[in-house]
Amino acid sequence: MPLVFRLAVESDFPALEAMVIEAFEPITWQKKLDRDFGPLNGRDWRERWSARLANIFKTQIVLVGESAGDLAAMATATLDRAAMLGFIDVLAVGSKFQGQGLGRQMLRAVIEHLKSLGCQFVNLDCLTDNDVGNALYASEGFVEVARHIRWFKKI
How far is CA 60 from its chain centroid? Predict the structure, then answer.
């Protein structure tokens, strides 16, 4: 089913936050921190993601994809106008909509939005163990240019 895309409005943010947290629960590295170190200063991974999303909603482009009027997917991005480089930060599909190709539609839509702003390049990050995400990005023509290791230590 094709999605209908639009820019998010503030009233979307609570539902988008819930969607992202639910979609990222199986894959987020933040959950691994809780497993290995416990909640950071009493804040578990969900609380940390909520705070991160609050900042994202204030500072980034937030595009939503709707299916029959329901929020089904979302993506956030920023643009470096000097380099005409777009950065896709978050891409999520609601759990009841996963496995239907909506992530691909959302990815293409956010890229088209960035192109409409003059973007000529796009960058995104994906965890090495996110097989579904990495397969999607490779199939859409993204080229892996680097890997990095996220180190963490209690001090």
Answer: 11
